[in-house]
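Not sure how to ask, but would you mind making up any protein sequence you like and the C-alpha cells describing how it folds?
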Amino acid sequence: MSQHPVLPSTTLRGAHAHYLEQLSDQDFWKYAEQLAQTPPVATTQTEEYLECDFESGLALLPLTTLREVLPAARYLAQLPTSPHWMLGITAWRGESIAVIDLATYLTQQPAYPTGHSVLLIAQLADVTLGLSATIRNMNMVLIDEQEQASQPAHEERWQPPRSFVLDTYAGVPILHIPNIVTAIVQQLRVSYE
C-alpha cells in the first residue's frame, strides 16, 4: 500500500487503476479511508477578464458577467430622444436589445473608439443589453486570488463611479456589470416615461 501515495484528487489512470485492482478488500477500504481524511488542497481561483480601453483609462470586465462577446453591431436603429450614451437598438438572438456606448455612459463624455470595438452582451434577470466597448487586447487577462492581492498598483487616470467598481487589479478598476446594467435600465425607464 505504500507504493502509491494518497492523492488529494484521484484520477484513475492505467497504473493507478491496476494498483487498485490488486488491493484486497481490507486494503482498498483502508486506502479509501485515507483519501477521505486527506485535507483538500487549497486551489487558487482564476478569473478571466476582458481589458477595455476607454479614452480616460482602462477597465477590466469579468467574463462571467457576460453572455457573449461579438463583433461591433453594424446595424443600429436610432430612437428619438435617446440618451447620448445609447447608440440605438439591434437584434440579438431574435430579440431587440439596446446598445449602450459603455465609455460614454461611464464618463458621461463623448467617446471616440480607437481600437477593436466589440459588442458585449450582458444579461441581468429578464433584461439584455449590448455594451459597445473597445477591447485593448483580445487575449483574456487571467488573475488568480493570490496574484491580485500582491499586484502593485499603477496610477490610473480615471475612476468610474464607485458603485460600478467591483474591485481593482493593479490600480485598474474591475467593473461591476450587474450594477451598471441596473443603473442603465433605470435611466432608460426614466427617459422614456
